[in-house]
Amino acid sequence: MIDDSIRALAEGKNFAALTTLMPDGQPQTHIMWVGCDDDHILINTEIHRRKFKNVEADPRVTVAIWDAENPYSFGEVRGRVVETVGGDAARANIDELANKYTGADYSPEVQSERVILRILPDRQIAR
Prior knowledge:
The protein is an alpha+beta fold. It has one domain (4-126): Pnp Oxidase, Chain A. The chain contains 3 helices and 7 strands, in the order H-E-E-E-E-H-E-E-H-E. It has helices at residues 4-11, 50-57, 87-102; strands spanning 16-21, 27-32, 35-36, 41-46, 60-66, 74-85, 114-126. Strands 2-1-5-6-7-4-3 form a 7-stranded antiparallel beta sheet, with helices on both faces. A hairpin with a 7-residue loop joins strand 5 and strand 6.
């Protein structure tokens, strides 16, 4: 289950840093839009992107979310991508995230296929 403090950050208009592991073990971090359900942190990306290829090879990730109004307030989730969800659900999710962050549906052209990364926490910390 997602910790209440982490949930509040993920449901707010706050950005997240998603760290994945490259094939050589080097970490790669991207600033992302973020959401959650009851049990997972949700990140939406496209299947041609390096971060997606990274989690296919090694599902371990870290997600740090910080409060846009107070960056000293943050949460960290260490966990694993346990499922990917594509198709209409992923497209609806990116529009939902775009509306949360920009007030409009997602407008950049989708280059491959949208996919939701469902991240199950192994460890959660909020400050």
